[in-house]
Amino acid sequence: MNDDIIAYILSLVCIILLLIEWIAGSHKKAITNTIVFATYSLPLYYLMLYKGSSGAAFTWWFYLVLSTFIQVIILLLKMLRFFLKRFFEK
Q1: Helices marked H in 1-90 — which ranges?
Q2: Exposed, middle or buried: residue 78 (CB in 10 Å: 0-12, 13-18, 19+)?
Q3: Which residues contact residue 78 at a Cβ distance below 8 angstroms, ignoring those fewer than 6 apart?
Q4: Measured between alpha carbons, how far is 77 from 90 in angstroms, rounded to an integer?
Q5: For residue 26, how many other CB atoms are within 10 A of its CB?
Q6: Cα separations (Å) of 38 from 33, 35, 64, 71, 87?
Q7: 23-81: per-residue pLDDT in tens?
Q8: Reported pTM
């Protein structure tokens, strides 16, 4: 299995969570999180795919996976808090 698949799947999960946040939560927060995601992921994907010679691609891949994983965890915690708050209000 190609290691890039991990980065692609994490990015896809993050995009799905951003769409869920857009639908269920605040539009301002979703736009802010989308800007943050695009700000770090687009340059890191570019560096990984086009400037990744002689082992540098692994460095960019690692930073991309780490930062995307951190953002996914933060989004999951925010959504959990949002849905639990909504559940206990009823």
Answers
A1: 4-24, 27-50, 56-89
A2: middle
A3: 21, 25, 29
A4: 21
A5: 13
A6: 9, 5, 11, 12, 31
A7: 987 889 999 999 999 999 999 999 998 988 878 889 999 999 999 999 999 999 999 99
A8: 0.87
